[in-house]
Amino acid sequence: MIFGENDYSNHLIVTNLQDKKINKIQSFNKEDWSSAYKNVEKELTKVPLTISKGENIKDLNGTLLRNGPGILERGGQWVHHPFDGDGMITSIKFENGQPFLTNRFVKTKGYLEEEKINKFIYRGVFGTQKNGGILKNALDLKFKNIANTHVVKLGNEVLALWEAAGPHALDPESLDTIGLTTLKGVLKPNEAFSAHPKIDLNSNASSELLVTFGVQTGPKSTIRLMEFNNAGENAGELLIDRKDTFNGFAFLHDFAITPNWAIFLQNAIDFNPLPFLMGQKGAAQCLKSNPNKKAKFFIIPRESGLFKGQPPLVIDAPEGFVFHHVNAYEKDSEIILDSIFYDDFPSVGPDENFRDIDFNKYPEGKLKRSTIDLKKKTSALETISKQCCEFAVVNPRNLGLTATFSWMASTSQKLGNGPLQAIKKINLISKEEIYWSAGPSGFVSEPIMIPSEISSKEDEGFLFILLWNGERRGSDLVILDAKDLKELAVYELPISIPHGLHGSWVN
Ligand SMILES: [Fe+2]
Protein backbone atom coordinates (compact mmCIF):
# COMPACT_ATOMS: atom_id res chain seq x y z
CA MET A 1 0.00 0.00 0.00
CA ILE A 2 1.33 3.41 -0.81
CA PHE A 3 1.43 5.92 1.95
CA GLY A 4 -1.13 8.21 0.35
CA GLU A 5 -3.81 5.55 0.70
CA ASN A 6 -3.01 5.06 4.37
CA ASP A 7 -2.66 8.79 4.78
CA TYR A 8 -2.68 8.92 8.57
CA SER A 9 -6.08 10.54 8.46
CA ASN A 10 -6.63 9.35 12.00
CA HIS A 11 -3.92 11.57 13.39
CA LEU A 12 -5.35 13.95 15.90
CA ILE A 13 -3.85 17.03 17.33
CA VAL A 14 -5.27 17.91 20.71
CA THR A 15 -4.14 21.15 22.24
CA ASN A 16 -5.29 20.77 25.80
CA LEU A 17 -5.10 17.97 28.31
CA GLN A 18 -8.66 18.74 29.35
CA ASP A 19 -9.85 18.15 25.80
CA LYS A 20 -11.44 14.70 25.76
CA LYS A 21 -10.86 14.20 22.02
CA ILE A 22 -7.72 12.18 22.70
CA ASN A 23 -9.95 9.47 24.20
CA LYS A 24 -11.84 9.05 20.95
CA ILE A 25 -8.90 7.47 19.18
CA GLN A 26 -9.79 3.87 18.40
CA SER A 27 -8.19 1.21 20.54
CA PHE A 28 -5.41 -0.69 18.84
CA ASN A 29 -5.37 -4.08 17.18
CA LYS A 30 -2.81 -6.28 18.94
CA GLU A 31 -1.73 -7.95 15.69
CA ASP A 32 -0.92 -4.56 14.17
CA TRP A 33 1.35 -4.01 17.18
CA SER A 34 2.91 -7.48 17.46
CA SER A 35 3.53 -7.77 13.71
CA ALA A 36 6.59 -5.54 14.25
CA TYR A 37 8.28 -8.39 16.09
CA LYS A 38 10.11 -10.32 13.40
CA ASN A 39 13.70 -10.67 12.28
CA VAL A 40 15.16 -7.90 10.16
CA GLU A 41 15.67 -9.67 6.86
CA LYS A 42 18.41 -7.78 5.12
CA GLU A 43 21.31 -5.37 5.41
CA LEU A 44 21.24 -2.42 3.04
CA THR A 45 23.86 0.17 2.14
CA LYS A 46 23.08 3.80 1.40
CA VAL A 47 19.66 3.22 -0.17
CA PRO A 48 17.99 6.56 -1.03
CA LEU A 49 14.61 6.93 0.67
CA THR A 50 11.62 8.09 -1.31
CA ILE A 51 9.32 10.55 0.31
CA SER A 52 5.73 9.37 0.78
CA LYS A 53 4.25 12.48 2.28
CA GLY A 54 5.38 16.07 2.80
CA GLU A 55 8.70 17.38 1.53
CA ASN A 56 12.37 16.78 2.19
CA ILE A 57 13.71 19.13 4.89
CA LYS A 58 15.76 21.57 2.83
CA ASP A 59 19.44 21.88 3.84
CA LEU A 60 19.17 19.14 6.49
CA ASN A 61 22.53 17.43 7.00
CA GLY A 62 23.38 14.86 9.62
CA THR A 63 22.76 11.24 10.52
CA LEU A 64 20.03 9.64 12.58
CA LEU A 65 21.31 6.51 14.33
CA ARG A 66 18.96 3.97 15.91
CA ASN A 67 19.52 0.72 17.79
CA GLY A 68 17.16 -2.06 18.79
CA PRO A 69 16.65 -5.81 18.59
CA GLY A 70 16.96 -7.15 15.02
CA ILE A 71 16.96 -10.93 15.63
CA LEU A 72 14.03 -12.24 17.65
CA GLU A 73 13.76 -15.82 16.44
CA ARG A 74 16.18 -18.54 15.40
CA GLY A 75 15.25 -21.98 14.09
CA GLY A 76 11.66 -21.53 15.27
CA GLN A 77 12.63 -20.49 18.82
CA TRP A 78 11.62 -16.98 19.88
CA VAL A 79 13.46 -14.84 22.40
CA HIS A 80 11.50 -14.59 25.64
CA HIS A 81 11.68 -10.81 25.63
CA PRO A 82 12.57 -8.43 22.78
CA PHE A 83 15.32 -6.93 24.97
CA ASP A 84 17.17 -10.26 24.44
CA GLY A 85 17.30 -9.71 20.65
CA ASP A 86 20.64 -9.04 18.91
CA GLY A 87 21.30 -5.39 18.16
CA MET A 88 20.69 -3.99 14.67
CA ILE A 89 21.82 -0.47 13.82
CA THR A 90 20.00 1.72 11.33
CA SER A 91 21.56 4.91 10.06
CA ILE A 92 19.62 7.44 8.02
CA LYS A 93 22.01 9.98 6.62
CA PHE A 94 20.62 13.26 5.31
CA GLU A 95 22.53 15.00 2.55
CA ASN A 96 20.88 18.37 1.84
CA GLY A 97 17.57 16.93 2.95
CA GLN A 98 17.76 13.67 0.98
CA PRO A 99 17.92 10.65 3.32
CA PHE A 100 19.92 7.45 2.65
CA LEU A 101 19.49 4.30 4.75
CA THR A 102 22.18 1.85 5.83
CA ASN A 103 21.60 -0.97 8.33
CA ARG A 104 23.81 -3.61 9.90
CA PHE A 105 23.53 -6.20 12.64
CA VAL A 106 26.20 -5.70 15.27
CA LYS A 107 28.52 -8.63 14.56
CA THR A 108 29.13 -9.59 18.17
CA LYS A 109 30.85 -12.86 19.00
CA GLY A 110 27.51 -14.37 20.07
CA TYR A 111 25.68 -13.14 16.96
CA LEU A 112 28.30 -14.71 14.66
CA GLU A 113 28.22 -18.04 16.56
CA GLU A 114 24.42 -18.24 16.56
CA GLU A 115 24.08 -17.00 12.98
CA LYS A 116 26.26 -19.87 11.75
CA ILE A 117 23.93 -22.56 13.12
CA ASN A 118 20.71 -20.47 13.31
CA LYS A 119 20.12 -21.47 16.91
CA PHE A 120 20.23 -19.66 20.26
CA ILE A 121 23.20 -21.02 22.19
CA TYR A 122 23.23 -18.35 24.92
CA ARG A 123 20.71 -17.60 27.64
CA GLY A 124 19.24 -14.10 27.61
CA VAL A 125 19.14 -11.72 30.57
CA PHE A 126 15.39 -11.22 30.09
CA GLY A 127 14.49 -14.90 30.11
CA THR A 128 15.46 -16.47 26.78
CA GLN A 129 16.57 -20.03 27.50
CA LYS A 130 18.56 -22.49 25.49
CA ASN A 131 16.57 -25.43 24.14
CA GLY A 132 16.67 -28.48 26.41
CA GLY A 133 14.92 -27.28 29.55
CA ILE A 134 16.16 -26.39 33.01
CA LEU A 135 19.01 -28.94 33.09
CA LYS A 136 20.50 -27.51 29.94
CA ASN A 137 20.34 -23.97 31.35
CA ALA A 138 21.28 -24.52 35.00
CA LEU A 139 24.68 -23.18 36.01
CA ASP A 140 25.30 -21.75 32.54
CA LEU A 141 26.23 -18.18 33.47
CA LYS A 142 27.78 -17.18 30.14
CA PHE A 143 26.03 -14.29 28.49
CA LYS A 144 26.00 -12.76 25.06
CA ASN A 145 26.83 -9.08 24.67
CA ILE A 146 23.89 -8.22 22.42
CA ALA A 147 24.79 -4.54 21.78
CA ASN A 148 21.13 -3.67 21.27
CA THR A 149 20.28 -0.67 23.47
CA HIS A 150 21.75 2.59 22.23
CA VAL A 151 24.08 3.94 19.58
CA VAL A 152 26.21 7.10 19.86
CA LYS A 153 29.28 8.58 18.21
CA LEU A 154 32.36 9.12 20.37
CA GLY A 155 35.52 10.35 18.65
CA ASN A 156 35.85 8.64 15.29
CA GLU A 157 33.78 5.63 16.20
CA VAL A 158 30.14 4.78 16.46
CA LEU A 159 29.46 2.73 19.60
CA ALA A 160 26.71 0.11 19.93
CA LEU A 161 25.92 -0.07 23.64
CA TRP A 162 24.56 -2.70 26.04
CA GLU A 163 24.91 -1.84 29.70
CA ALA A 164 26.09 -5.15 31.13
CA ALA A 165 29.25 -5.31 29.01
CA GLY A 166 31.64 -3.30 26.84
CA PRO A 167 30.78 -1.20 23.78
CA HIS A 168 31.18 -2.44 20.20
CA ALA A 169 32.86 -0.01 17.81
CA LEU A 170 31.39 0.36 14.33
CA ASP A 171 32.60 2.14 11.22
CA PRO A 172 30.56 5.39 11.12
CA GLU A 173 29.85 5.17 7.38
CA SER A 174 29.42 1.46 6.63
CA LEU A 175 28.30 0.48 10.17
CA ASP A 176 30.52 -2.59 9.79
CA THR A 177 31.52 -3.94 13.20
CA ILE A 178 35.13 -3.20 14.15
CA GLY A 179 34.77 -5.13 17.41
CA LEU A 180 34.60 -4.78 21.16
CA THR A 181 36.52 -1.68 22.19
CA THR A 182 38.22 -0.66 25.43
CA LEU A 183 38.14 3.00 24.27
CA LYS A 184 41.93 3.18 24.04
CA GLY A 185 42.47 1.34 27.29
CA VAL A 186 39.91 3.26 29.37
CA LEU A 187 37.87 0.11 29.98
CA LYS A 188 38.94 -3.35 30.98
CA PRO A 189 37.98 -5.88 28.28
CA ASN A 190 34.17 -6.14 28.24
CA GLU A 191 33.79 -3.85 31.30
CA ALA A 192 30.19 -2.72 31.94
CA PHE A 193 29.51 0.57 30.15
CA SER A 194 26.10 2.19 30.44
CA ALA A 195 23.76 2.45 27.45
CA HIS A 196 22.69 5.96 28.54
CA PRO A 197 25.53 8.40 27.92
CA LYS A 198 24.66 12.10 28.08
CA ILE A 199 25.98 14.63 25.61
CA ASP A 200 26.67 17.63 27.84
CA LEU A 201 26.78 21.08 26.27
CA ASN A 202 26.37 22.87 29.62
CA SER A 203 29.18 21.66 31.87
CA ASN A 204 31.78 23.83 33.52
CA ALA A 205 34.38 22.31 31.18
CA SER A 206 35.27 24.31 28.10
CA SER A 207 34.12 21.77 25.53
CA GLU A 208 31.28 19.39 24.77
CA LEU A 209 31.45 16.29 26.96
CA LEU A 210 30.08 12.77 26.78
CA VAL A 211 29.29 11.75 30.36
CA THR A 212 28.56 8.15 31.18
CA PHE A 213 29.01 5.43 33.78
CA GLY A 214 29.51 1.74 34.43
CA VAL A 215 28.26 -0.24 37.45
CA GLN A 216 29.76 -3.23 39.17
CA THR A 217 27.10 -4.56 41.47
CA GLY A 218 26.82 -7.12 44.25
CA PRO A 219 26.37 -6.69 48.02
CA LYS A 220 28.04 -3.31 47.35
CA SER A 221 27.80 -1.38 44.08
CA THR A 222 30.55 0.70 42.53
CA ILE A 223 29.66 3.42 40.03
CA ARG A 224 32.43 4.53 37.69
CA LEU A 225 31.61 8.00 36.35
CA MET A 226 33.47 8.90 33.16
CA GLU A 227 33.57 12.20 31.28
CA PHE A 228 35.00 12.17 27.74
CA ASN A 229 35.92 15.06 25.50
CA ASN A 230 33.31 14.96 22.73
CA ALA A 231 34.45 17.65 20.31
CA GLY A 232 37.43 18.61 18.18
CA GLU A 233 40.65 16.71 17.61
CA ASN A 234 40.72 15.17 21.07
CA ALA A 235 37.18 13.77 20.94
CA GLY A 236 37.12 10.40 22.66
CA GLU A 237 39.80 11.34 25.23
CA LEU A 238 38.89 10.51 28.83
CA LEU A 239 39.04 13.69 30.91
CA ILE A 240 37.53 12.64 34.21
CA ASP A 241 37.24 9.29 35.94
CA ARG A 242 35.79 8.80 39.41
CA LYS A 243 34.59 5.78 41.38
CA ASP A 244 32.15 5.71 44.30
CA THR A 245 30.96 2.67 46.21
CA PHE A 246 27.51 2.37 47.79
CA ASN A 247 25.87 -0.23 50.00
CA GLY A 248 23.53 -2.73 48.42
CA PHE A 249 22.61 -4.13 45.02
CA ALA A 250 21.96 -1.40 42.44
CA PHE A 251 20.04 -1.68 39.19
CA LEU A 252 20.97 1.51 37.35
CA HIS A 253 19.85 1.73 33.73
CA ASP A 254 19.97 5.51 33.33
CA PHE A 255 21.10 8.63 35.19
CA ALA A 256 20.78 12.40 34.92
CA ILE A 257 23.29 15.22 35.02
CA THR A 258 23.45 18.88 35.94
CA PRO A 259 26.64 20.98 35.61
CA ASN A 260 27.67 19.99 39.14
CA TRP A 261 26.05 16.61 39.83
CA ALA A 262 25.45 13.14 38.43
CA ILE A 263 22.18 11.75 39.80
CA PHE A 264 21.36 8.04 40.10
CA LEU A 265 18.22 6.43 41.45
CA GLN A 266 18.74 3.07 43.12
CA ASN A 267 15.36 1.39 42.84
CA ALA A 268 14.04 -0.47 45.88
CA ILE A 269 14.49 -3.90 44.37
CA ASP A 270 16.27 -7.08 45.33
CA PHE A 271 18.10 -9.56 43.15
CA ASN A 272 17.66 -13.21 44.05
CA PRO A 273 20.04 -15.09 41.72
CA LEU A 274 18.88 -18.60 42.63
CA PRO A 275 16.28 -19.14 39.84
CA PHE A 276 18.88 -17.84 37.38
CA LEU A 277 21.55 -20.22 38.65
CA MET A 278 19.05 -23.09 38.61
CA GLY A 279 18.21 -22.44 34.97
CA GLN A 280 14.61 -21.41 35.66
CA LYS A 281 14.72 -17.66 34.90
CA GLY A 282 16.79 -15.01 33.20
CA ALA A 283 18.82 -12.71 35.46
CA ALA A 284 16.46 -9.74 34.97
CA GLN A 285 13.48 -11.95 35.88
CA CYS A 286 15.11 -12.38 39.31
CA LEU A 287 14.66 -8.68 40.13
CA LYS A 288 11.79 -8.04 42.49
CA SER A 289 10.50 -4.92 44.21
CA ASN A 290 11.08 -4.95 47.95
CA PRO A 291 8.34 -2.90 49.66
CA ASN A 292 10.36 -2.89 52.90
CA LYS A 293 13.30 -1.23 51.27
CA LYS A 294 13.78 2.48 50.54
CA ALA A 295 14.85 3.64 47.10
CA LYS A 296 17.91 5.92 47.26
CA PHE A 297 19.29 8.78 45.26
CA PHE A 298 23.05 8.56 44.80
CA ILE A 299 24.18 12.09 44.03
CA ILE A 300 27.78 12.23 42.88
CA PRO A 301 29.69 15.52 42.54
CA ARG A 302 31.10 15.91 39.04
CA GLU A 303 34.85 16.48 38.90
CA SER A 304 34.21 19.16 36.27
CA GLY A 305 31.86 20.93 38.71
CA LEU A 306 31.99 23.14 41.79
CA PHE A 307 31.96 20.28 44.29
CA LYS A 308 34.80 18.20 42.85
CA GLY A 309 36.55 15.93 45.30
CA GLN A 310 33.63 15.86 47.71
CA PRO A 311 31.92 12.60 48.76
CA PRO A 312 28.56 11.64 47.22
CA LEU A 313 25.23 12.26 48.94
CA VAL A 314 22.77 9.43 49.61
CA ILE A 315 19.17 10.60 50.02
CA ASP A 316 15.95 8.59 50.42
CA ALA A 317 14.02 8.52 47.15
CA PRO A 318 10.27 8.21 46.45
CA GLU A 319 8.58 4.86 45.95
CA GLY A 320 8.33 3.44 42.45
CA PHE A 321 10.54 2.01 39.74
CA VAL A 322 12.44 4.06 37.16
CA PHE A 323 14.20 3.00 33.97
CA HIS A 324 14.57 6.43 32.41
CA HIS A 325 15.10 9.98 33.53
CA VAL A 326 14.14 12.94 31.40
CA ASN A 327 16.23 15.81 32.68
CA ALA A 328 17.54 17.41 35.87
CA TYR A 329 18.49 20.93 36.85
CA GLU A 330 19.79 22.80 39.90
CA LYS A 331 17.68 25.33 41.75
CA ASP A 332 19.45 26.87 44.75
CA SER A 333 20.20 23.90 47.03
CA GLU A 334 17.72 21.62 45.24
CA ILE A 335 17.91 19.30 42.29
CA ILE A 336 14.75 18.98 40.23
CA LEU A 337 14.62 15.63 38.45
CA ASP A 338 11.96 14.49 35.97
CA SER A 339 11.65 10.73 35.42
CA ILE A 340 9.24 8.08 34.14
CA PHE A 341 7.97 6.21 37.22
CA TYR A 342 6.29 2.78 37.30
CA ASP A 343 4.42 1.55 40.36
CA ASP A 344 6.45 -1.67 40.16
CA PHE A 345 9.18 -3.31 38.11
CA PRO A 346 7.55 -4.50 34.86
CA SER A 347 8.82 -7.95 33.86
CA VAL A 348 7.55 -10.58 31.41
CA GLY A 349 7.14 -13.77 33.50
CA PRO A 350 8.53 -17.16 32.44
CA ASP A 351 5.12 -18.40 31.23
CA GLU A 352 4.12 -15.29 29.30
CA ASN A 353 4.47 -14.61 25.57
CA PHE A 354 5.73 -11.07 24.98
CA ARG A 355 3.91 -10.83 21.63
CA ASP A 356 0.57 -11.50 23.28
CA ILE A 357 0.83 -9.65 26.56
CA ASP A 358 -2.17 -8.10 28.25
CA PHE A 359 -1.10 -4.47 28.68
CA ASN A 360 -3.61 -4.08 31.53
CA LYS A 361 -1.59 -6.47 33.68
CA TYR A 362 1.52 -4.29 33.63
CA PRO A 363 2.16 -0.98 35.37
CA GLU A 364 2.37 2.05 33.09
CA GLY A 365 5.05 4.72 33.09
CA LYS A 366 4.07 8.18 34.32
CA LEU A 367 5.97 11.44 34.14
CA LYS A 368 6.83 12.56 37.67
CA ARG A 369 9.05 15.21 39.23
CA SER A 370 11.36 14.65 42.22
CA THR A 371 12.49 17.67 44.18
CA ILE A 372 15.68 16.70 46.02
CA ASP A 373 16.77 19.00 48.82
CA LEU A 374 20.53 18.62 49.16
CA LYS A 375 20.68 20.53 52.46
CA LYS A 376 17.83 18.78 54.27
CA LYS A 377 18.61 15.49 52.50
CA THR A 378 14.98 14.87 51.63
CA SER A 379 13.03 14.32 48.44
CA ALA A 380 9.42 14.83 47.39
CA LEU A 381 7.52 13.56 44.37
CA GLU A 382 4.75 15.12 42.27
CA THR A 383 2.98 13.73 39.22
CA ILE A 384 3.28 15.85 36.10
CA SER A 385 1.03 13.66 33.95
CA LYS A 386 -0.86 10.45 34.63
CA GLN A 387 -0.86 9.42 30.98
CA CYS A 388 1.27 6.37 30.15
CA CYS A 389 4.51 7.42 28.46
CA GLU A 390 8.15 6.49 27.90
CA PHE A 391 11.25 7.75 26.10
CA ALA A 392 10.88 11.40 27.12
CA VAL A 393 13.46 13.95 26.00
CA VAL A 394 14.19 17.66 26.25
CA ASN A 395 15.97 19.89 23.77
CA PRO A 396 19.59 18.60 23.93
CA ARG A 397 20.74 22.22 24.42
CA ASN A 398 18.81 22.29 27.73
CA LEU A 399 20.16 19.03 29.12
CA GLY A 400 21.14 19.67 32.74
CA LEU A 401 19.45 23.07 32.79
CA THR A 402 15.84 24.20 33.20
CA ALA A 403 13.70 22.98 30.32
CA THR A 404 10.19 24.22 29.59
CA PHE A 405 9.30 21.50 27.09
CA SER A 406 9.56 17.74 26.89
CA TRP A 407 8.62 15.41 24.03
CA MET A 408 7.79 11.74 24.57
CA ALA A 409 6.09 8.62 23.26
CA SER A 410 2.70 8.08 24.91
CA THR A 411 -0.39 5.95 24.68
CA SER A 412 -3.33 7.21 22.67
CA GLN A 413 -5.66 6.99 25.66
CA LYS A 414 -5.24 9.19 28.69
CA LEU A 415 -5.37 6.54 31.42
CA GLY A 416 -4.12 2.98 31.75
CA ASN A 417 -1.41 1.02 29.98
CA GLY A 418 -1.18 0.36 26.25
CA PRO A 419 1.25 0.49 23.36
CA LEU A 420 2.94 3.79 22.57
CA GLN A 421 1.02 5.29 19.66
CA ALA A 422 1.32 9.04 20.08
CA ILE A 423 3.97 11.71 20.37
CA LYS A 424 3.23 14.22 23.08
CA LYS A 425 4.75 17.63 23.71
CA ILE A 426 4.23 18.91 27.22
CA ASN A 427 4.95 22.31 28.71
CA LEU A 428 6.48 21.27 32.03
CA ILE A 429 5.43 24.51 33.68
CA SER A 430 1.87 25.09 32.45
CA LYS A 431 1.25 21.31 31.88
CA GLU A 432 -0.35 22.16 28.54
CA GLU A 433 -0.02 19.25 26.12
CA ILE A 434 -0.34 18.65 22.40
CA TYR A 435 -0.34 15.31 20.61
CA TRP A 436 0.39 13.73 17.28
CA SER A 437 -1.09 10.25 17.05
CA ALA A 438 -0.19 7.38 14.74
CA GLY A 439 -3.25 5.44 15.91
CA PRO A 440 -5.11 3.27 15.43
CA SER A 441 -2.59 1.13 13.52
CA GLY A 442 0.69 3.02 13.95
CA PHE A 443 3.14 2.60 16.85
CA VAL A 444 5.82 5.11 17.75
CA SER A 445 9.31 4.94 19.24
CA GLU A 446 11.55 7.33 21.15
CA PRO A 447 11.41 10.78 19.53
CA ILE A 448 14.85 12.20 18.75
CA MET A 449 14.77 16.01 19.08
CA ILE A 450 17.05 17.96 16.77
CA PRO A 451 17.17 21.66 17.63
CA SER A 452 16.81 24.24 14.90
CA GLU A 453 20.13 25.55 13.61
CA ILE A 454 18.66 28.96 12.88
CA SER A 455 16.67 29.53 16.07
CA SER A 456 17.60 29.32 19.73
CA LYS A 457 13.96 28.93 20.80
CA GLU A 458 13.68 25.82 22.92
CA ASP A 459 10.85 24.17 21.03
CA GLU A 460 12.02 24.93 17.50
CA GLY A 461 13.49 22.03 15.61
CA PHE A 462 12.54 18.59 14.38
CA LEU A 463 11.42 15.32 15.93
CA PHE A 464 12.54 12.11 14.21
CA ILE A 465 10.42 9.04 14.92
CA LEU A 466 10.71 5.50 13.60
CA LEU A 467 7.18 4.25 13.32
CA TRP A 468 5.72 0.76 12.96
CA ASN A 469 2.96 1.14 10.39
CA GLY A 470 0.67 -1.76 11.36
CA GLU A 471 -1.56 -1.22 8.36
CA ARG A 472 1.12 -1.89 5.77
CA ARG A 473 3.22 -4.02 8.20
CA GLY A 474 6.35 -1.94 7.63
CA SER A 475 8.49 0.82 9.13
CA ASP A 476 8.26 4.51 8.36
CA LEU A 477 10.40 7.46 9.33
CA VAL A 478 8.28 10.43 10.37
CA ILE A 479 9.64 13.94 10.84
CA LEU A 480 7.51 16.30 12.91
CA ASP A 481 7.84 19.99 13.62
CA ALA A 482 8.89 20.06 17.29
CA LYS A 483 6.87 23.21 17.97
CA ASP A 484 3.39 22.22 16.80
CA LEU A 485 3.88 18.49 15.99
CA LYS A 486 2.86 19.03 12.38
CA GLU A 487 3.91 16.24 10.06
CA LEU A 488 6.67 17.53 7.79
CA ALA A 489 7.85 14.40 6.00
CA VAL A 490 7.14 10.67 5.96
CA TYR A 491 9.36 8.03 4.33
CA GLU A 492 8.49 4.34 3.89
CA LEU A 493 11.60 2.38 4.82
CA PRO A 494 12.86 -0.54 2.68
CA ILE A 495 13.35 -2.68 5.83
CA SER A 496 10.97 -3.63 8.62
CA ILE A 497 12.39 -2.67 12.01
CA PRO A 498 10.95 -4.19 15.23
CA HIS A 499 9.91 -1.82 18.05
CA GLY A 500 13.30 -0.48 19.09
CA LEU A 501 15.18 1.24 21.86
CA HIS A 502 17.40 4.32 21.72
CA GLY A 503 19.12 6.46 19.14
CA SER A 504 20.98 9.70 18.54
CA TRP A 505 21.65 12.40 15.99
CA VAL A 506 25.12 13.09 14.67
CA ASN A 507 25.85 16.34 12.86
FE1 LIG B 1 17.02 2.89 28.11
From TrEMBL:
Domain of life (superkingdom): Bacteria
Pfam families: RPE65
Protein name stated in the entry: Retinal pigment epithelial membrane protein
GO biological process: carotene catabolic process
Organism: Prochlorococcus marinus str. MIT 9116
PANTHER family: BETA-CAROTENE DIOXYGENASE, CAROTENOID 9,10(9',10')-CLEAVAGE DIOXYGENASE 1
Cofactor binding note of this UniProt entry: Binds 1 Fe(2+) ion per subunit.
Membrane-crossing segments per the record: none
GO molecular function, one term: carotenoid dioxygenase activity
Keywords linked to the UniProt accession: Iron, Metal-binding, Oxidoreductase
